[in-house]
Amino acid sequence: AQSVTQLGSHVSVSEGALVLLRCNYSSSVPPYLFWYVQYPNQGLQLLLKYTSAATLVKGINGFEAEFKKSETSFHLTKPSAHMSDAAEYFCAVSVGTGRRALTFGSGTRLQVQP
Amino acid sequence: GAGVSQTPSNKVTEKGKYVELRCDPISGHTALYWYRQSLGQGPEFLIYFQGTGAADDSGLPNDRFFAVRPEGSVSTLKIQRTERGDSAMYLCASSLKGQGNTEAFFGQGTRLTVV
Questions:
Q1: How confident is the model at residue A96 (pLDDT cuts 50, 70, 90)?
Q2: What is the pairing mode between strands A108-113 and A10-14?
Q3: Which of A27, A44, A46 is the best mutation test for B, with the most CBs of B within 10 A?
Q4: Chain A contact for B67, CB < 8 A?
């Protein structure tokens, strides 16, 4: 079975600072990994996904994530935070066979201070 | 439609009552998923449909929960004899093929409150 751990339920950064949201996964088979963002009163929106092609994945809104198999990590980064980045971020994993639904982490709430 | 639509957006019901939550997926998407999200937690898988059939219902917590998708499009999540612990946001998602590497598009959810 697969699982996801997101370190830090709340992260606060200053506007313009680096954003780093941590995600570690556990999977017995090569995983597919996703980052979703949830703005208040909105549905989950896909930021980016890793599907075994390039290990450095670029997504929307300037976010990117790097798949590191040796560290079983898929951390999300953005060089310069914007006020509009304030939201809840979820890391998720799925595997190619068997259940095709996503297994989500518990989420990280990002606050951006002016 | 343009996106995944869920109705109602909010539902308040009394303990012991029956509720139905509706999901209208993106047109042409064969895969449909239901998740439940409790406050401060990530979404938890409930059930996955491929077409009309439930391909995986291993996430349903007990036999009070049931879901259908009779024509392979709209799905209804049904909860019998609701309990206060069922209070949560219920999310529906659809994807084109239901493969593990394809994007799932989420609706805005139905917030269920059992009083």
A1: low
A2: parallel
A3: A44
A4: no
